[in-house]
Fold each of these.
Amino acid sequence: MHAPSTVFAPGIEPATQVGEELHSPRDHPRALEPITLALTAALSVLGALIGLNLITTLGISANTSVIGALVAMLVGRVNVLGLRKMRSVHRQNLVQSAISGATFGAANSLLSPIAVLFVFGRLDLIWPMLLGASIGLLVDTWVLFRTFDSKLFPAAAAWPPGVAAAETVIAGDRGGRRAAILAGGALVGLVGTFLQLPMSAAGVALIGNIWALAMFGLGLLLRQYSVPLFGVDINTQYIPHGVMIGAGRVALGQAVALLRRSRAEPRPDGAGSEDGSIDPSRITTTSEGQLRRGLLEGYVLFAAGALLVGLLGGLPLELSPAALLGWVLFVAFAALVHEIIVGLAAMQSGWFPAFAVTLIFLVLGLVVGISPVPLALLVAYCSATGPAFADMGYDLKAGWMLRRGARPFLPVEREGRRQQYIAQLVGFGIAMAVVALTWQSYFRDQLIPPVAKVYAATITAGLTDPSVVRNLVLMAIPGALIQFLGGPKRQMGILFATGLLLLTPNAWWLVFGALLVRIIYDRVRGSAAEAETELSLVGAGIIAGNALSDSSRVLGIR
């Protein structure tokens, strides 16, 4: 069975150009071109509103990048006012990057953090926290921009929603058999989601690493059936959280091992040449030195943001200078670790346990005795990081797939990534404005993200069961062992803990069913490469159909 440690972009050989040819960085469309900017801004408003409505009514956020790509395709069919330029797959990529960034930014990184302070009863801290959450969001995505396509976050890894977005754009550009397979997968995703099945679980299982996703499915199974099988709710005993702590510690150690290397390993022969003879899947465009600097910059910027939040939140009145400094350093560490763990889970599975990882730091804060107000600010600030980090990884993966045929690849890829980042900054800016203008009406109508209620209730209640600490320590051992044995490429410990932390009924059998289909089809098809390409197209379609269904729920809401 063909089971690579990383999944390359399916169906796009390095020599294949998608859409218009890119021969230099100057050929790549600009995010601030009038037509692109106008469509980006309009769809970012829509994306932000979709995100806010979904997070406050259903407690979820949808990946709207496929919606952005489809709208851009339709606009490109209109031959007036220069709209035909939107037929460019790279402009479509810019638009889908912005709308998805606005969706996750508004819902997960801005509204949810300030809702923690609202539920906690500190309305006077909402505006300072909105500023702090905005800083956290911007630093979060800056770190991803600086570290994407490194050995820690390689572009050649799965990033399943990014594959779905790219394949949607490619299908619209090329049509033919690829479009038919993708459309068939999308139909399956739509029908399954209509039947209340978590279809994205099956979609990612057709794209991601088999070993990692097997552990993910096992975690989902144990979470769903822990009570009938073992007579205990593993979540209330904080067993999944302990597993994630152990896996996270080893994952951080594995990341540090990368950062300690003084220089990048040499590229394979011909892989890094600028004359066009390059296979993007064989190299990383971000060196270990750049990765190290990006994470260090992130920690310093997170600390600066935490200090501002602490000062505006009145912590100097509650904490001594030494305690305030310790709080700032711990908050910055929590924010950075939070985004790394969420990013690793999202990279391999397409799902990210942002809520659960934030809850881990909340519990650790209670264990070490952080008082309620500083802990509420810590949790709110930490929760602003991670989701947008993961979402931007999906978008950059999509762009990487669309640019793989460019010659020369390296400068075009770097410029395209920069333009995507600019487009997402537009989306983030609009998300900040939308949240600033609407949060009072949402909270007045008691439309509050459910996760914020959990955070606030946990802070208020504190830890009354001494067994929680024991479980965290004991369950960290198997989490660490699984992560160590799986290695940094598979992230098996992180994925197992992610499954344990997610209560998604019936997701486990969709994961294992899709993995079984992969194994059987791989053997029957004969050609491992062709089987992987076709199944990845089906998986991308399922994810796209699920995302469209989730986004459509906003219709008629509020």
Amino acid sequence: MPRVIITSLLYYSLMFLSNGVAAISTTNLLQQGQDFYQRGDFAQAIDSWQIALDKTQQGSKERFNTLIRLAVAYQKVGNSYSIAYNLLNQAVAESHGTAARQVLIYSYLGDLLLVMQSPDAAKKLFEEQLPLARTLGNSSRILATFLNNFGNVLSVDQEYTEALKLYQQVADIAEGIDDTALQIQALSNQARAHFKLGALEPSTAMLKKALSLVYQQPDSHDKAFELLSLGELALRFQNNSQFISNDSQFTIKIQTYPIFMDALRLAKQYQATRLLSYTKGLLGQLYESQQRYPDALLLTREAKFFAQAFPDLLYLWEWQQARLLLALKDLDGALAAYQRTIVYLQPIRRELSVGQRDRQAVFYERIRPVYYGFADVLLQQAQATSSPPQKAKWLNQARDIIEQLKAAELENYFQKDCVSVQTPIALLDNLIRQKNTAVFYPVLLSDRAELLLSLPDGIHQIVIPVSYDILKETVLEFRRNLQRTVKGSFINQAKQLYQWLIAPLMAKLVAHNINTLVIVPDSFLRTIPMAALYDAQEKQFLYQRFALATTPGLTLTEPQALERHQVKILLNGLSEGVQGFPPLPSVIQEINTINKAFTQSTVLIDKAFSLNGIHESLQRTPYQIVHISSHGQFDRNPKESFLLTYGDKLTMDRLEKLFQLSELRSEKVELLTLSACQTAVGDERAALGLAGVAIKAGVRSALASLWFVDDEATSQLIAEFYQQLQNPALSKAQALQNAQKKLAKKRKFRHPAYWAPFLLIGNWL
């Protein structure tokens, strides 16, 4: 059962249109279409309703309702959202100003926008239409539907408190008008929102109330799916450590087994193959949580049997089987099951998120853990073998799986296939052997951290017995303390993280004369600058020992040395305060200093720094370096990420278009420098956006900062970086290292908050 917010559009809408407040004249075609729809035959329903639509009169209620029916059916099909959107807009045009009709249509439109991965547009629409919706009164089904769908948008945007207020209003309206189906939806959504907030008691109360209402409904196919949805939510509660109270476990409060057994009874009654697969699989998941692994394995295999026609289920149960075999210490069986899981998952990975209201939840709960689980088994195999060739085989496979995950994460973040670079790993390994370079992969698993280190003689594996939760807590505390420039409280976490992540590698790094460390950060490690990790024994920070670079994935990197002769640079800067952002007075000096270091440069400052200005410059001249000194932010939502120009914002999509190769510019930009950007504090997804900016922009490397650094310190460090870059003997990573060293020597800027957050992303040569 997909873990998505329940909406009132699909299940409830057709009942509303047939039995709603307004009397609706139906034809045989409309009824025939509804029969098809209820059986899940959406194509036949569309055919019937399309014929009915052609027979209706312009502006009639019958036509209005048929347009809605068609839009809902097209949305249900899953790949026809644009058709559904056009049909709903057609209904808007024919609503003739009736408030109830308008609110109903806008409710559908808002939900469709959410499904189409446009939550900002959906939120704006709901906010604009809320006053009109309120005029319908607190006994209106249409108002309740509107508020429910608005709450879904807020939940996806993680505004759970505000969403809960709307869900409560929906539940009150539904109870007042005796609409049990809508009340169940509102209660379920409340339970999920409370779960996201970590609130045990209200989550439990909402779920129990929803279940009691479901049990009161007559047997039906829909009742079975409602039971499964609520049963799975209860199972998630009991498996979440936050939802275990001090005195009793959640399983005592809600027993999931009877829920699934009742759903199984209905699945058999209606001979529904997909429903049978769901039920068997979730029962297996329940037994897995109770460590009844043989019983769980039997049910999971039965679920696989019924899922042969459903790839989205088949990979889930194959994954579940892999977990169970791993729990039973059958590493070979688990490995084979994970291999099959990836085979089933890869062709449908992008489609799994299509039509889901919370796309990120699908990826982080249903896709990313598969790759980690597969890597976990491979790493355990490598640890268990005493054969060096076999160990190398397992470690290389584990690295390949992690690389696949890195590419998938970026595609999910930017919501499109942005990964155009896939450098062969053999080529990268050969480069590492020649350049005194090591690549560091920290792989963070629930019970341990696996440190993979690629050196000239191959991949090395070091296991650190620190749990994911403890490491995460330390990292987040480190980030918070590091940004407090008046205190040195960060040093305790800097030492601890060094001991966990770097000290175990040092002997091998020294033995191979490594001077450059390329880091492929995992999860929350993206939110911190590794440069500030501290070696208490040698009394030095990591950047003092190694030149550092970071990349979202090694195969996503194009390692190519920057040609230092006749470098062309485009210098863009914004010193004035515009669009509500404060001025950056040091930008003028920064741009002037950099300009003096290059003989072929173009300067766009303040008013000249516009979207048109930078576009025309890039079209005229093949710049190797593009420098932008301006406010910028990277958000967990890529649509909220931007760089500030004088009169506009350079979004990530615009940035991608600006740097696209064309007939006028056949070579990629080598370096994009972002001089005053920042990420959302401690947000892993925002940091992923920063890490992926070079790939999104289509440049080989980027220089940017994790947080906004003092204007003067930024200007001095960036200017020194370019001075160092003039030396052809230095790589870009070494140029940054020297610039950081010089800035840190100044008493005013010796705190790592000033020099550590600058990251070289991508190509380090």
Amino acid sequence: MHFTKNWKFLVLSVFVIILCSNREVLAQRRTDFPDSLRIQYTVDDITFEFKTSETLDKNSILYILSLQKDQVFKRRTFEEDRLRIKKYYFDNGFFDVVVDTSAQYDNEAETVIANFIIIENGRYTFDKITILGLNKVSPDVLGSINKSLTLKTGDFYNRDAIIAETGIILGILQDNGYFYASLDTANGTIVSKYPTGSQGYGNKVNLQLSFIGADKQYHFGTTKINIKDNKYGLKDDLIIRGLSYKPGDLYSKTQISISERNFSNISIVQSGRILIDTLMDSSSTINLKVEITLNKKYEVTPNLVAVDIDNLFFGGAGIQYFDRNFLGGGRTFQIGVQGYLHSKDINRVDFSSTVFQPYLFNYRITGTYNLKFIFYNFDKSLQFTTIQNLFRFYYIIAPYTFYNSAYSDITFDLLRTKYKETVISGTDTSLSGTITNQMNSIIGFTIVHDNTNDVFSPTKGLYHSITLENAGLLPRLVSILNSNISYSQYFKIYLLNKIFHDITGGKATQIVAGQIKLGDIIEYGKGANVVPVAPLYKFFSGGSSSLRGWNAKEGGILESPETGGTFLFEGSLEMRWKTFAMNQNFFKNIWTVYFLDFGNVWEKDKYFRFSQIALAVGLGIRYDTFIGPLRLDLGFKLYDPTAEQNKKWLFKDLHNTFKDHKFAVQFGLGNAF
């Protein structure tokens, strides 16, 4: 009985002590709480306090937070964000990071400043990287893996880099027959860390990657074709021809992906998936099946378009007819009419027909023939009527080579030019009402490197192309038989380079983009039949995809900028910022863009001068849509080499910026580049 009373007294004493302690702690923490818990506070600002160093970018940290400015403050979200920051640092090698929080309330304004306190405590690097489970892999495959590895001793620990390294290894294994290769789920990734002062190490980690299933290679077996609702009588041979592998080849996931991409070239095919049918362990064979779903064979489609032509922005409408299995073989026939309008003096109508052959000789080569009739009011002075014939052969080289595609064009054009007003170009004068006829034939070759990650709005990657053209060879041969034919002779080289970099480390909210264009048309040949290059084939400066401080075709070191020049040097730099990235409403698709454009067009390359390079600066807004970004830009002439000496620089005559029209408003669909 005595023991029971003492036991109860002891428990009661401990309870009182704990209660007092907690009340003391709560009293100390109370300074972080608002006067009234019933007030709904708004986040006024989010700040960071770095006690030691600041290694990671603040913007990248802000992106991972749920807490946002001008939103209702929730302490639970505040704590969850603290843990998110800690994990983000941990994933970047800061294993000993300490993250704390503090909140400063303004009861009168009903706002709060959320502050994160970060102590980094040093960053860990790789000391030893070990890969297990590849002892039965063939020597050539193992060699490919070793050449492709990116992680090195001394690199900072990074979780994303480890995942990427794992993906590289698995990709090579699964492209070389190791169908079952995977990361060992029990012992896949083991990281051992050694802090400074521990066993002689200084913030080091040992990494071990373990793989299983890399002990047996499989080969492709048979492939069944299943065409759902095959009402057009599509033959299996058309699908089989698109397979990039054959029975007996080593199993490869990449070859399956390439084959599925080949199906997408066939317009009648809506979707094509390659699936595992049976797996024969006894013969190390994998049998596959292809599931094909078809599009409509015939279709009539009206459309609205917005496009840049000769640096001018055109809006247009048209109608097109499609036959997606024209004469069989998966080829596409398309015919249509399209009208384009820039202004009452500048407009055009195109009548076109196209035949597309998805497989020419083999699955890597496609062929296109396009016949087009164009009525083009080029400007208030010139009107073109053109018959264009284009043969294009497109070749997919390989995804892993630097130049991954190429195409060759052969054109044969008949050009009729009508002068609506008298035009003076150099020493040549064409009177109003004059009509000239010209034949042009161009043989061109373009080679392309493209590893950008999006067609409309790339956030990373490089695009690079080189185009070489020769004009006049065919008309020269024809002129032997008919001396009344006029034509141009020239060599043309055109280089285009575009680069995109995501400075937010994969968040795709702040993109730095750059572009450089270089083009030269070198005329040659003499004779009564040889005429200067028509404006339709020249370079122009100014406009929505050029120097944005100038209106379209208003720039250039030229007597008549609207008729173009033969030498082009231009470039652009842009900072693209997704301004409301964390919003979930209308504003989430808005981008703000700051740009610098430079360059010009010259009459000939020999007249090029660095001092004549024009500069334009400005800002713009983009709004993402399913057809690409809608674009509005305001550009200013930062440096105009054609202006008077005391008005060349914008800042020397700022008060006359709008009076002297040193600006331009540009519209467009899609980014400027």
